[in-house]
Amino acid sequence: MNKIFTPLLSLLLTFWISESAQAQSWEVYNTKIQLQSRLIYDDIDILSETVRVGKVGDELSLLSNDLSPAVSLEGTEIYQYLSPWILVKGPNGIGAFHEYGQKVLPLEYEKIDTYFSFLLASKGNEYWLFQKGHNKTTYLGELDEAKITNTGLIIVRKGDEYSLPLSINPDKTFELLSDNEGEFVLAKEASGYGLINREGDYVMDPIIETLQHTHSNFFYGFNQDQYLLIEGNDIKSNIRYNSFHKITFENDIMLEYIHGKLRRVMEDDGILLDDVGMTAVNKIGKDLYNVHFRDEKIGLLGKKGWLVQPMLDVEEIEFGTEGLFPAKSKGAFGYVNSAGTWIIEPQYAEATMFAENIAAYRTTQNWGLISPSGEQISEATWEEIKPFYKGLAIAKTNGKYFLLNTFGAVLNSEGFDNIYRTTDGYFMVEKSGKSGLLDSEANEVIPAEFENLRRERKNFVIVQKDGFTGVINEAGDIIIPLAYEEVLVDWANDQIFTKNNYTPTVIKIVVESNKKNKKGA
């Protein structure tokens, strides 16, 4: 022993011994707020109804049903969870575990892409494939690119050659393999373009001169002087439309020209509109088109035909609801019906769709409200008005947000910094950095005095105040005291987790010179 620790100099020595000075404690309750157990973890992650992960220090563990450590996940943080795969990050890279606890990839990869039945991992330009059914990892080699399609095919590229390593012919090469939002891969060989299904089989032989994807399982092509509209099929793809006349596909608009004149607006598998005298088509939204004619009429075309019949004295027609469509004429907006008749004459700088028989209009800078007959409900005094829903709208003026009823009356006299609708019709409000809650009729349920607020369900609101978290009901009564660092809820398993600082067991040892040790706790 060092000489400094002599009886003369060490009349009293005190040692503090603890399990972990940084550990956290968790209390687990059922949803009736009955204490079930206490746990020692720094963090708990609820990944799904059956997958929970606990962390102590730099150690992650998959937890059993009784929330005790069951499987070490080896890494220091959860990188991503995509059922059934848990991706874990460690000092040397990313690895993967099955949610049942099986380690399937060591923690050494830079990137891992997931599919239900396999994983694609990479380091630099080297790739590996783990297949769940075979329970093994295969080295794919050094590649320029590898990706998983949305149907579970793997496309790899090395130089100018593509291949499908999971197909029945993994060594076959292609000039191009391109996936899309649909279920079929676009393939190109020297003989032409074709389509491949999720099993890697051709459902359209590679004989088409040009082919490109349009939407869903539809494709636009050209072959032997014919333009083709093709629909993918798991057994054999179908040519749904063919024409010797020119069909163009640009800016998501497909048009057919006969003898050089625009004649048809096409959809993915055929003719949407066949009419003479068309001069131009503008797409204004999904399956929505403004169609222009030589006689200066404009109509609004939808998926099932005319939404607004072609009409004169209009510059554009927008999508509408409740039988009225915002339309612009000579720089001003009004509303037309489906027959192309003005119901509200053009007089606004801007106009919105109707919702619950109310629309917003803008004059110069500000917004007001009108009825379907054009009657003014409120003057244009608002900077912003959001659409009505269940009788209420959120509006903004002077930087503050308010709730309006269908008469245009303000329901909260004092404005908020922000108002958000919840999925069940309540309103989250913010004021001076604090959060509160209003009910579906704009009545204050919880005052704006909390740093954070989350309404899990009726009469169960997780709140944070002065750095502490707890649970209150909508009357403001405390369900779980605001005394915790964190509150997690697992409704599927009827469990509530509360996190608090852990006060470890301490043993104090007092050593006095020339006397026996005295121990106390």
Automatic annotation (TrEMBL):
Pfam families: WG_beta_rep
InterPro entries, alphabetized: WG_beta_rep
UniProt keyword annotations, A-Z: Signal
Domain of life: Bacteria
Keyword Ligase: no
Range of residues in the leader sequence: 1-23
Membrane-crossing residue ranges in chain numbering: none
Protein name: WG repeat protein
